[in-house]
Structures are given as structure tokens and as C-alpha cells.
Amino acid sequence: MRKVLTTVLAGFLTAAPALAEKPDDGLVFESAEALKGKTVAYLPIAMGFDLTEAWVTGLKQDAATWGYELTIRDPNWSVDAGAQAFAQLIQEQPDVIVVHPPEIQAYARLIQQAERAGIAVVVMSLKASTNADYFIGPDWYDMAVEQTRSAIEMCGKSKGGSGKIAVMQGVLTNPTSQYGIQAIEATVAESGGDIEIVSNQAADWDASKAHAIATTVLQANPDLCGYIGMWDNMDVGIAAAIREAGKQDKVKLISSGGGNRDSACANIENGNFATYISYDAASQARDLMMVVRGLLQNPPEEPGAHPVALYTPLRAIDKATMHPGSCWSLDTLQAYGP
Amino acid sequence: MMAARTRSPLSQEMIVAAIAALLFAAFFLTQPVFRTTDNLLSLLQNVSILGILGLGMALSIIGRGIDLSIVTVMAMSSAWVLQLANSGMPLWVALLAGLLLSIAVGLVNGVLIAFLEVPAIFATLAVATLNYGVVRTALLDDNLVYLKADVPAWFHAIGGGSLFGIPNPVLLFALVCLLLHLFLRYDISGRFLYAMGENPAAARITGIANRPLTLLQYAICSVIGFGAGMILASTIGSVETRIARSTMVYDVILVAVIGGIGLSGGKGGVRNVIIGTALIGVLLNGMTILNTPYTVQNIIKSVILMLAIVADSILNPRDEQTSQQGDI
Predict the structure, then answer these.
(1) ipTM value
(2) I need a labelling partner for B305 at 20 to 30 A (CA). Which of A274, A318, B24, B221 fits?
């Protein structure tokens, strides 16, 4: 009897830890196992600015939680250094490469090369001419259409505006500019003369260049009603020019960007931007995190064969629609995750 | 000082001035918007930062050197000032810190060039990279720094305000022109700088302290860079440090050299920079008014600059007498 008791007790004791163990639902251990020990490489245009820092927070969090290795290469705005880093990464054979191409053509061949080497590729935000396994980012055409519609709404002759708008592009070989300007021109043509583009210039994403150009454009077009900018970080230069000209009530600046509080909501609050189309980089960070998990668990048999597009839902923000959740801040994102 | 090179009565300075005047006249006559006072002021405002940096560059070139770190100093020290101000430091302390940082960078340039005798082009190139890297990793949180702190209104007025209808950056450009002109023409160090640029060995033999003078030269360059950075930062309310890695420094060299400051040193002055800046300013402003496409603008800009250089080399051909060691 005593022996039986001991056996039962011993059995109970050894069984006890098993009670705290997670039940195997047929997926939970398998998925964790699939992520462990894998390698993911992240190659943005540059680190150190809101978008790329936001996207990487999700990957960092997952790398720590699931035990995959995250390699970050920072080419610091240099297309050459980026292409070199990409080629190097292909040699290193990670499981997934996440790239953020500086120009439409820059990484086209490298993406194909990576795919041939059996590496899954995710393209972030800036569409490349070669399709990868996933694209996560805004549909730049749609975004510029929204911006232009907003300009028509505020500046169209039928709405009592002067109908004159100006456009500030970024880097011309960048999809934001390349698809964006087509959308703007098409939407303006569609308006049937309700608005017209009186100036179309490019400022290389540089706020000081944008400031200089906008100062002249405002002089040349005293009845300008709207300004479409293509990135918040550059558009603050246009805003400064409008402010200096004392035309904050007359010229509406329509900007776009990743919805970082300092660049987006702060500028709507202080009247710099009239409308802002956000592609919420914090949600994109979450999308990226999940896509990478998916690719690690189910690596494509033939990378690049079936490209998937995850276009980010766009969010128009102005003074009327702005709410506490409209923007995100990098500090909070880094502290609490996307 | 220009006499050594001038064979035709037209110097490069005059050729460039003539081209600038022609362009100005063309825009003035054909574009009603161009000839408004406001537009002419904004023309000046838009090139005032470039002009100020050009003055710093001119100073380094006159002393037979070059300062490739001036744009980095502009971006990094002004970004640091904004970050310090954001962290709650009183603005004047932040400004002082930025100023000291820029002077330190200038002195490092000077020591490398004067005492270790590293050629200026390599020394300042290395210091530019070092300055960017160290400030970016050790002092800055981000590439792009917004001014978030509540700073006194005078700070925004530096770049954004105006006096008697003239934008402050234009007045500041004029002020730096005046100060540098006084320094180069009337200060002993300024006069010695020409001597050192013209012939360093002879300057040394005659008793000029070349080494301390070089330190002073690069420190002033850096301070000018810092000043330009603060004007830019207060205009836009943010600093994008990416500008430090851009090709802007070539534009700055161009402004100085196109106006007729010989790269071999010892030649030129403030007037040359003003002429170079005016040419670029008129070109950019006119083409923006005409809404010339960006790519075409680049072509026109380079063709006109090339014309100026070609005209100079035809009218003032180089030969054994006029060329000197150090000519590029």
C-alpha cells in the first residue's frame, strides 16, 4: 500500500510540471520551431528616420521573441552602398531579405538574383520594377489621386478657389514621384479645367531646396491656392516658405507621409499642412512583422513566382478628422511595439 | 593679385559677371514676375545660405587649402543645437555648444593640415566623414531633427524674419560678406592669408606664422558653416543631417571657383563669391519661374557653367608663366 502511494505521489509530482506546459494544438510548437534560428536581413534606404525606424521595431521584437537573427545594413542614402550591401546579403543566404529600394530600377536585378538564390524578398514602401514575394506600402498612384482630389475640393474654381496649384516632387526616379505625378496630372485633366498645375518642380526630398523653390513659386503665382507635396519631411520646407510669405490662410499645403506625430499631426495642428494622407508606418511595421513570420514558416518554393501586394490603407488627416490615434510616435512604438 | 593670370582684359570674374548680367536682363525683360522687388529679394534669400558657405570656402581656398567639411559642420552642429534645445537646455547654451563643436572641428582640420601636413583636400574629407559619424552616433538620436522646444521668437526670426522688408538671411549674407571683406583687406591675418596662399614658403621665410594662421583659417570656416546651419535650421524648423552626405559641398566650391577664386590660392575675394552666387541665384530663380523641368534645369545649369569655364580658358590660356603649382 505504502509502495503504491509512493508511486502515485511520485507520478503526480513528475506529472505536475506537465500541467503548466502549453498544450500542443498542432501549430503552436511547429510555428515557433519554424522561426527559430532563421535569419532575416533588413536593408532600408537609411536608418535613423521615422519610416525605417518604425518598420524595424516589429522585426526586432519578433527576433527577440522567436529567436530569429536580424541583420540590419544601413547604406545611409547611398544607392551604390545599398546595391553592394544587397549583393553581399545574397552571398550570406538569409531566409528573408527586406528591402526598401531608393529608386524604381536600382535593385531590379538584385531582387531577381536573390530570388534565384532561393531567398524570399519583401519590398517595403517604394515599389521596385521587379516584383518580389511581397510588397508592403501605399499605392502611390491612389495616394496622389487622393491628394489631388483634396486640392480640387479646396481650390477648384467651382468651389470658389483660384484653381491654381503647384507640385513639389521628391527624387524623380522614385516611385512616389514617378507614379504620383502621373496620378496628379490625370486627376487634374479629369477635373476639366477646375484646377491647373502652375508649377511642377523637384526638391530631392530636401526641405531646404523645397523652401527655396516654393519661395519663388509663391512670388511667381500670387493667386496660388494649393501646394501638393510628396513627403512630410521635405514639405516642411514648403510650409516655411508659405509662412514667410504670410499666406498660411491662402495657400493650402497637402502633404503625405508615414504619419509620425512630429512630421504629420504636429504640422496639422500648427496649420502647416491643410490635409495629410498618411500610410501609417506603424501599421506597416505590423504588416512587415507578420509577412516575415509567414515567409519563415512557409518559405516560397520558387521565390518571386507569386508576388503578393499588401497596399497600405490610406488615411486622410486634417484638423477636423484628427484624433489621438491619427499619428504615432517613435518613442511609444519602440517602447511598446507596433 | 589677379594680374598674374590675366592675359585678356576679361578675367573669369568678368566673364561670369557678364553671363549673370545677361541672364538677369533676359529674365528681367521677358518675365514680369521676375522683376518684382519681392521676387528679387527671394532670389537673394534662396542663395544666401549657399553664398555664406561660399564665403567660408573662399577663405579656405585663398589660404591655399579647401574645406570639404563645411557642409558637414553646417548640418551636424546645427542638428545638435536643436536636439539640445529639445532636451530642455536653454537655447543660448545649446547655441554655444554648437559653436564650440564647430570650432573644434575646424581646429582638428587646422592641426591635420598645419602640423601633420596632410593635404587639405584629404584632411577635410576625412574630418567631414568623422564629424558626421561621431556626431550622428554619439550625439544625435535621429537623422532628422525637428525643433520641438519652445524657443524665443528671435530664434525663428534669424532665418524666417525680415528687416525693412529684406529677408534676414539676405542681411546676414551681406553681414558675413562685409566682415570677411574687412578681415581679408584690413586685418593683418587676412593680408597674411593671401601671402600664405600665394607662396607658403616665402610667407614663412618672411616671418608669417603659417601654422597658427591655418588654424585660424579653418576655425573661421567652421564658424561660418555653423552660422549657415543655424540660419537654415531656424528657417525650416528642422535639420536633415542627410545634407552632410549630399553633393552640396560641390555647389559651394563651384560658387567660389566660378566667381574667379583660383584653386591655387592667394587670389580673389568676397566680390568673386558674390558674383558666383548671383549667377547661380539668377539661374535657379528664372528657371523656377519658367517652370523648367528639373532634369532640363540641370542640363542648362551645367552648360552655362561649362561655358563660363571654357570662355575663361580660351581668353586666359594657361602657360608656363601663368600656371603655378597647385593649379587643378
Answers:
(1) 0.77
(2) B221
